[in-house]
Amino acid sequence: MFLLNQHPYYRKPLDPVDAETLGMKAAEEVERYLTYRDNHAPTPLHTLPTLAAELGAGTIHVKDEGFRLGLGSFKALGGSYAVIRIVLEEASRRLGRQIDVAELHSPEVRSIAAGMTVACATDGNHGRSVAQGAQLVGAKSAIFVHSGVSDERVAAIARFGAQMIRVEGTYDDSVAEAVRVASEKGWTVVSDTSWPGYERVPELVMQGYTALVSEALRQLPEVPTHVFVQAGVGGVAAAVAGHLALVLGDKRPIFVVVEPARAACLFETAQAGHPVKIEHGAPTVMAMLECYEPSLVAWRVLSRVADAFMIVDEEDAVAVMNRLARPAGNDPAIVAGESGGAGLAGLVRAAASPDIKAALHLTGASRVFVINTEGATDPERYAELVGMRPDAVATSIEGADA
């Protein structure tokens, strides 16, 4: 299914708050914060010439967030950044002066952070980022996970010292429980989705994601003509689309939001013209995208700057995982988790449809940009779906680079 954006706000300027959050100065500030993080380095940008030729595109570039800050996902940029900002703001309030990130590890800031607990709900990657951020600043973290989150992903979060809390039901149920418990205990909720009255922290999370766009624009040989980005609640899609619109203006690329058919809350929202909560059905293999209600902030941005919305099926995502692990021609091998290649799966599906190709003006001159949003964050599941362990794919990558 495919839908062009027909919202009345389409192509209207961003809300001033969103423009400030996602603009050039904000991205520069995020990148400054990253210089104080261990393991910080720009993530790779890969070129897929063989796949581009097969799909009838000019070029395909993939930003590989599987290498981000040792967490294996773009989410490392968002939750931890928001935690750092929240702790520094609380320290500024208590100490009566502006506290910069350069003072993050000072005794005064560490003492204040030690008395704070941050909480969130997660499918896996956001919680890992929040827990890592809490550990980095010396705060406590409580992470709520729904019944569909694998034990491997829970363990990956717990290693950062987080208190893990299981919740029956879906991701949305875990969000509600995190808010309820945090309110009772005086914890600070660091969510990557927003709802009425709760917007600033999700904006900070989205702001953190702008760093990957800034990096990509420096790495790309030319500005892309098309961008396909996957969405759960819509945070990364809105951050990428919003930043590109603000930085590039009329030269911005055609932007397509890609979702799993089993969890297409933004597609349904775009179709209805207003935020829609969809019914929970069969779980999707794209576990990090299994969200049934959009972030209100993300929708506010995407209603203005997304050009189209589309969905992909389970087999589309798995096929891309396998294609990236076993590339053809001169394409590099890439480890993409179940949700990591969903944007690329959208491109593959679009290229196979003459109607969608025409609607998006996809041609042999198109320069397409996609994001591998996660590596193998659940190695056992990856091996089950791809038939190779992620370390075996990674070994082939290292061999090709040698």
Automatic annotation (TrEMBL):
Domain Tryptophan synthase beta chain-like PALP: start-end pairs: 38-359
Alphabetized SUPFAM superfamilies for the sequence: Tryptophan synthase beta subunit-like PLP-dependent enzymes
NCBIfam families linked to this entry: diampropi_NH3ly, PRK08206.1
Transmembrane recorded as keyword: no
Keyword entries, A-Z: Lyase, Pyridoxal phosphate
Stored Pfam families: PALP (PF00291)
Record bears the keyword Cell inner membrane: no
Name used for this protein in its record: Diaminopropionate ammonia-lyase
GO molecular function (one): diaminopropionate ammonia-lyase activity
Signal sequence interval, chain numbering: none
Annotated organism of origin: Microvirga vignae
Co-factor requirement: pyridoxal 5'-phosphate
InterPro entries assigned: DiNH2opropionate_NH3_lyase, TrpB-like_PALP, TrpB-like_PALP_sf
